[in-house]
Amino acid sequence: MADFRTIEGGVLAARDFVAAATNCGIKPDALDLVMLHSLRPAAAAATLTQNRFRAAPTYVTESAVADGNAQTIIANSGNANCATGEQGLADAERMAVLAGEATGIQASEVIVCSTGPIGRFLPMDKLEAGIPTLGPALSRDNAELAAQGIMTTDSYPKSCAVEFDAGGAPCRIGGIAKGAGMICPNMATMLSFICTDAAIDVALLRDTLLECVEHSFNCISVDGDMSTNDTVAILANGAAEGEPMVYTEDAGYENFKAALQYLTQDLAKQIAFDGEGASKWVTIRVFGAKSFEQAREMGKTIANYNLIKTMLYGEEFNWGRIAAAMGSSLLDFDPNRATIELQGTVAWQSGAVADFDRATAKQALHSKEIDIRVNMGVGDGEATVWTCDFTPDYVELNKH
Amino acid sequence: MADFRTIEGGVLAARDFVAAATNCGIKPDALDLVMLHSLRPAAAAATLTQNRFRAAPTYVTESAVADGNAQTIIANSGNANCATGEQGLADAERMAVLAGEATGIQASEVIVCSTGPIGRFLPMDKLEAGIPTLGPALSRDNAELAAQGIMTTDSYPKSCAVEFDAGGAPCRIGGIAKGAGMICPNMATMLSFICTDAAIDVALLRDTLLECVEHSFNCISVDGDMSTNDTVAILANGAAEGEPMVYTEDAGYENFKAALQYLTQDLAKQIAFDGEGASKWVTIRVFGAKSFEQAREMGKTIANYNLIKTMLYGEEFNWGRIAAAMGSSLLDFDPNRATIELQGTVAWQSGAVADFDRATAKQALHSKEIDIRVNMGVGDGEATVWTCDFTPDYVELNKH
């Protein structure tokens, strides 16, 4: 039985990690530059956007983690460095060089991230001046500053930390994330940085991160708009001094995986529920699919159906829109064996409208937290998808 | 060279078609029941929604046109008769019987359509009383009434008529459509009924309708929400007395196809541009794809990217969102060979940001009609997709 507990400490909860953040002038008056650094070499893995218009820094990050090691993360907000061609790539590489010089490591050990408007060159003079100031500022005390520093239109900083035993030692994982859904005005990007002092083989770290991301960040949607810069990066520096985990059977791996899954889901939900203009936190549980992947696709189809999102904003029990969304997925299922449940009220089952009280059903929608459950009736695959509702504020916030 | 011209007359422009409309009480005070009828037997074809939660009437329609003949169309608004199980199917079949009795034809020759809220049973007492009144009311003068009768939240009735020569005779096609995009509150449905007096073999009619729909109604999107009731139906009664067209080489077929393509595109654009809350008419032209299908998928991805729709509402020249949308399609293309043009301004080409004046580019967006052109740079496939922008009114209009 996996065991872990949540703790304080944010992204710096794990030992031998430090952070710094500053305003270097990309934005007028908010933090726009963040550095996370491991005081010792760390195993590293990252999952990157699949968008074909990928931003320059994602190529640098891909290269940095290719050998399984990295020690520093440098991230700016206010400019995505995307659709910037050759110069953009050179600029991202230069950010790695500057960050490496500031922390005394090779540029090849630096993960680079950017978020902000697409199609504009980075103001490199500001980064040339700003990044060197971060080295001396690195501290164990800057967890909150780091969480704030990667915010764009987020309405609150997003962090989480957990503790568990692995390899005979108490280990910790801390993480931060940014993104008001995938829908920030001008800066459609989800970033998450995770630091752990667990000792773990990089191949196992990669597999575990990938699987956890599949069930967390890849299960959220605000508007279905995939970003060019999405990055989740993890550094594992072994500072907890436990026995390294190499195989899934190793002592504590079960705890590590459960803890990482909890942390990534917690951060992912914070993003989904902080969708711009959102007034509802929506959890969609899909059962009876042929596989997890099919269940998740159904969940995302429901999550992205605008007419459901506007209906939840209006607190209207128009469950037929969930039926329409399910059918529009074109996934292979049988409506006559499907069930649809909205906020505890079963509306459709056994090929017929269920007997329910419409007034009671509508009343239940006056809640901040909304629960949608559907059963596809064709297997035992399950998935949970998190999203938010759709309000006029979303449009107003995103018109520029 | 195909030749045709637009004419007056709406859906009854072709000879030997009549129509009637009434309020039978499904809606409080608007027309909610429409009948179209051919005075002579007609070849018939229909394309139906692919949504897996298909409405009951679509099964009746599918069955009606299976033998290639139909003579009457009965359509109600105010109730979709979808997710209504066995009773819904019986109700749709009963509508066909009633319409057949009213026009003196077999029920198997009746096309049935419904549009409105999902998951409620039809008020059959009102239809039992209402449908028989339509028979005596059928008239050549009711084209406008028919166009109005299928409206739901449409802000204007949508019709079109064309004339051309085929088989040695002047032929006509008239059509009506409804749907404020696919996004009507409670009644997400697009319907279009087309009447022609051309004489045409039903197999050729089917193929031609399918191809024209692929390039018209299947090229529009308001919010990507597929409906449960979408139906396009055509009746061809041969009343123009021309030589029947059987093969694509036959005299006048080229004119017929061009005229039908024009009419379906005209109606489709009327729907896309009447999207709820819309303030812009957006035309997206995709070039350089590997195929028409790939070009259309790219166009629809751009059309459904909410951040582009909100940006057009805000008249902001944030072309990077088009890049992000293209990349998110996951279609196989090379950003370095792609071009992006927004309202006449080339923003991206040859793997780099183009040299353009931002103020001029932004100024051009103060137009009702918006033009987006992208080139994928991998082939010579092309497609045009029509959509509208996304305003706070959309959310307010759809919250119930």
Would you write up a description of this structure?
- The structure is a homodimer of 400-residue chains.
- Chain A has 400 residues and is of the alpha+beta class.
- Chain A folds into 2 domains: 5-273, L-amino peptidase D-ALA esterase/amidase (4-Layer Sandwich); 281-397, Ubiquitin-like (UB roll).
- In chain A, 31% of the residues lie in helices and 26% in strands.
- Chain A is built from 11 helices and 15 strands.
- Chain A has helices spanning 56-65, 85-103, 124-137, 143-149, 202-214, 253-273, 292-303, 306-313, 320-328, 358-363, 392-397, and strands at residues 5-6, 17-22, 33-48, 69-77, 110-115, 158-166, 169-178, 191-196, 231-236, 281-289, 339-342, 345-349, 352-353, 369-375, 381-388.
- In chain A, strands 1, 2, 3, 4, 5, 6, 7, 8 and 9 form a 9-stranded mixed β-sheet that branches. In chain A, strands 13-12-11-14-10-15 form a 6-stranded mixed β-sheet.
- In chain A, helix 5 (202-214) links the parallel strand 8 (191-196) and strand 9 (231-236).
- In chain A, helix 1 (56-65) crosses helix 2 and helix 5 (202-214) packs parallel to helix 6.
- The longest helix of chain A has 21 residues, at 253-273.
- Chain A is globular, with a radius of gyration of 22 Å.
- At the A-B interface, helix 2, helix 8, helix 9, strand 13 and helix 11 of A face helix 8, helix 9, strand 13 and helix 11 of B.
